[in-house]
Amino acid sequence: MSYATRQNHLLLKTLATKYNPNYAKAQKEQEDNGSEDSEDDKDDSSSGIGSIADPESPSWGGSSEHPGLGWYANNSFTPNYYQMYIPDPSTPNHKLIVTPYVLYAIQAHKAEVSATYGKGYPILTCALTPTTVDYLCIPTTPTQLALLVEHPYAQAVTKVIEANFPTHLIATLKQYQHFQEKKYNAQQHVTQYKA
Q: Are 161 and 170 in contact (CB under 8 A)?
């Protein structure tokens, strides 16, 4: 089954659980009946919304208490979503799941993302990078790149991106603008020393 198919299936299950009472009842009965099965059956990806068999599937439930101020629920329908995997402490084999909670630390020169299962659980921190994609992205032209750093365009582009794009892309844009500005300042100093 492809990643897109799994995503659509999970979305359907999630929406049906919320908006279709008959589906919610059937799901609860299936989970109740599944609790009598062996330990091996509990690791099946179809046994519930929160369980996954492979790390490509997102985790939707079963996490611990919210960690507190500054942390975001890692929901794929929001701009704060970041696909980062952590071991699931609620399963005996600690299979990998998409982290339920993320925290961003974004400065102009550096961006980091922290992940945790919930309050009181270990926190994993790493560099925040754009999510890789498996399709071809055309390279930007110098004119397009200039829009990201030249005034007044840069401010307008930044506002639009901050309002509509995921957090990891906003952090990438801010880093690009920061380092481009440092580069231009260094070039100006070199030009002044040559004169």
A: yes
